[in-house]
Specification:
By secondary structure, the chain is an alpha+beta fold. It is built from ten helices and eight strands. The strands form three sheets. The protein has a three-stranded antiparallel beta sheet. The protein has a three-stranded antiparallel beta sheet with strand order 6-7-8. The chain has a two-stranded antiparallel sheet with strand order 1-4. α5 packs across α7. 16% of the residues are buried.
Length: 273
Amino acid sequence: MDGNRVKHSDNSQGDDGGIGCCGCILMGISYVLVALFFPFSLCMTIKIVQEYERAVIFRLGRVLPGGAKGPGMFFILPCLDEFKKVDLRTVSYDVPPQEILTKDSVTVAVDAVIYSRIFDPTMSVCNVENADSSTRLLAATTLRNVLGTKNMSEILTDRDSIAAQMQHILDESTDPWGIKVERVEIKDVRLPVQLQRAMAAEAEAAREARAKVLAAEGEQRASRALKEAADIMAQSPAAIQLRYLQTLNSIAAERNSTIVFPLPMDLLKGFAK
């Protein structure tokens, strides 16, 4: 892709031909005017651009060879040259919320943010009228097109893959404009109120089902432990007596007004016979 970008840039800068006889005459007159009104003419001929800026100079409607100028100081000829400043810093675009119909027929509102920068000032000025507005409109259209092929569950869970797919599409589309899309982020996905309530009810039902399963498993484990303890105590009458005394002790500790003393199982054996 970088090779294509260099190729586009060279083509846009290499189309500068001769300015013709009239152009040469006008250029000579411009130099004469600069010399006559020196040093006042310096205010019109000297321009400065910042470190993060570049200047694309047009002389009689043609881009000067050598590409954009800057950073620093450069000279222009009055009445012949026009220049446009281009900011090379990374800028962010907020994509307005888009009403999107997903693949499973659910309407969602999605907004995103795009981070991009200009890597070729000449292409961004000559190949597109307004690079910022065009990139913003293209991002909104790409967001609708990409999310229209996804299910609602994919939009909620696979934001990273969707952002990477959007970045790839936008980067290829804005390459002829001299713009590099560095990053795409999905900011928010807003669902309809009815769908939110349905999802909340579904999640609550799933939690209740899991709670019931856990309670049943706990009861099963407790019953197994109780059966094992009963089998062990059945093998030792002394253990049963100790358990009986322990129960009496716990009942007495509760300060109840009425205490029920259960009959020992040994007293009932005679009546059973």
